[in-house]
Amino acid sequence: MKILVTRPEPQSSEWVAQLRALGEPAEALPLIEIGAPLQADAVHAAWAALPGTRLVMFVSPNAALWFARQRPPHLAWPATTLAAAPGPGTANTVRQCLADAGLGDSQLISPSPDSDQFDSEHLWPLLAPLPWDGQRVLIASGGDQGEARGRQWLTQRLQERGAQVSAVLAYQRQAARWTDAQQQLAREARQQPARHVWLLSSSEAIEHLQQAWAGQGGLPGGALALATHPRVAETARAAGFSQVRDTRPTLEAVAHARRTWAAEAA
Predict the structure, then answer these.
(1) Three-state helix/strand/coil letters over 153-199
(2) Ranges for the Tetrapyrrole biosynthesis uroporphyrinogen III synthase domain (predicted)?
(3) pLDDT tens sequence across 12-36
(4) Based on the domain organization, do 135 and 23 belong to the same domain?
């Protein structure tokens, strides 16, 4: 049972390398492709406005990576501006990408690595005690067709506390374009669904897979998935995956879930 890692690059290849280091059979098969935003000026303006911004929420590693890449060279991260991340993967990327800009560890807020889940709901208890009335908050996210997608639930909580929340498109998302080798891997997964398990961390990624296989009758019977969030699991079941299991979004948890599943099928 081979793990198909569907995260965008470079996270997909990074996960594959780390899973293989744990002895897991894994291959990169991204379902989302990341690129520069259509309007880089909006990111430049966001950087210029940071002194008046209390918090920047990075929704993913790519949000942090692309926001950092587009920093005007004369601008630094202000000491009064906080950064937030929904989990340790994004938090680590924020540290790596923005330390040179002046962001310190004391300014970064993120759930503990042993948190039950890495999402807005588990980040909010860390943000809720802070005063938000009249404060400006920026959600750095990705999107498609030039429209930024923010974290709606977290946005609502912040607005209820009086914060002024806006979103910026830090990167552009679209369906991944597979190489010849990846197309062959996808064909093998379709022909032998019981020997492949799709590692899913995004509902949008599932939509792209459905679109890619729409002309072939949709997902094959017996398709298997590991979902790193309950909402993603719900989307996977609705899309037609025959079996979907939840797992924490950590390398060790994913490896354990695959081994358990493979042992049961043996």
Answers:
(1) HHHHHHHHCCCEEEEEEEEEEEECCCCHHHHHHHHHHHHCHHHEEEE
(2) 14-253
(3) 999 999 999 999 999 999 999 988 8
(4) no
Both 63 and 23 in a single domain?
no
Q: Which of 174, 208, 228 delimits the end of a domain? A: 174
The structure tokens listed for 151 are: 């974290």
Other C-beta atoms lying within 10 Å of the C-beta of residue 156: 12
What's phi and psi for 203, nearest 5 deg? Answer: -65, -35
Q: What's 225's domain CATH number? A: 3.40.50.10090
Residue 145 has a pLDDT of 53
Beta carbons of 68 and 56 less than 8 angstroms apart: no
In the chain, the number of structural domains is 2
Helix (H) or strand (E) holding 14: helix 11-21
